[in-house]
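How a chain folds remains the central question behind the approach discussed here. For one protein, we set the task of working out the structure tokens from the amino acid sequence alone. The sequence in question and its structure tokens are set out directly beneath this paragraph.

_____
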Amino acid sequence: MSAELIAVGTEILLGQITNTNGAFLANQLAELGIDSLNQQVVGDNQARLDAAITLAEQRAEIIILIGGLGPTPDDLSKQTLAAHLGVALVDDAPALAKLQAYAAQQQQPMTPNNLLQAKYPAGATVLMNKVGLAVGAVSVSQGKQYILLPGPPKEFEPMVLDQLVPYLLKTLGHDATMVSRVLRFFGIGESKVTTVLADLIAGQTNPTLATYIKPYEVTLRLTAKAADEAAAKALLDPMEAEIQSRLGQYFYGYGDDNSLPQAVVKALAEKQKQVTAAESLTAGAFQATLADVPGVSEWFKGGFVTYSNHTKAAFLGLDEATINRDGAVSEATAKAMATGALAKAEADLAVSFTGVAGPGPNDGQPAGTVWIGLAQRGQEAQAQLFHFPGSRAAVRGRAVKAGLFWLLKTLQAE
């Protein structure tokens, strides 16, 4: 059996976004024994999309449309496929209720275009969207399967793994159960991961192993196929144990929907610890990242943004003469910032950031130079030096994640 993937979106054709969905889905289909022999990219045009579907029908048994399920005028995938198959669009009651609840929560009226997200081609099997509002669907007509999937990766990937893969397994007559386990790592690049795990990757059969790049981190997806879930998990355990023996120092958690900030907040809650921060380089980004996690207010009461030497002295109690002597970007300043924040906020832990984001050097230090400090109640402050590559935004983003990772490992070691 073969499949053809059609990515829908003018923004893909213009190079404004990269079609990572195609590679992800092709990999998943290959694991099921389904060949992905052709892929198309089509702009937001109904006539051209209909022609792409017609072409795909000549070459594949499964035609998969990715994107174009939203509420805006250029989201045309559902309407085009329904018209192509000669069926109406009908409402999915659970999705409609979810839309209405969302509108009520936002205290906004439900507009007709938003209702489109809850519709699917009549007679199709609905693929539930656990993350977003637009449902997917699988239609069967004249021996072909037509699949609608959302475009945003955060909605697309869970729908593929949790909805589409089980559906295809059942359709193909496979009695086996597939179970995936996602491991998340920080502080190591994908090329190093693949080098360290080269023998496992080369020799994989069942379970399989795939690497994916996330912003400044790497995830590994282990997938096993067995008669039942317990047997599949038993296949995954030895492979994970081997991976952990090689990469355990970089590991921080499991799951597609997990993240470093979430892991940190969970660890703070488990240890009953409160954290604060003093930020120069990152200008509050570390605190904003923590504040995005629900329930963090119990463990994060606030912190400090101290860009200038004067504010470092005024807000944190640092000696401005000492800063001038050692430099704002230095081990001593990072430690003093963390110690000062800890005392001022009366917290259990404090993280500090100072450095040069770029684009050029500053304070005698090259761009990418970052000192991160960490102070704990009753202990002497520590500091780590980093040299991060990339743009100004990349240096700051990597610094935030490095601070989170160090904080998490500190909490886990207690």
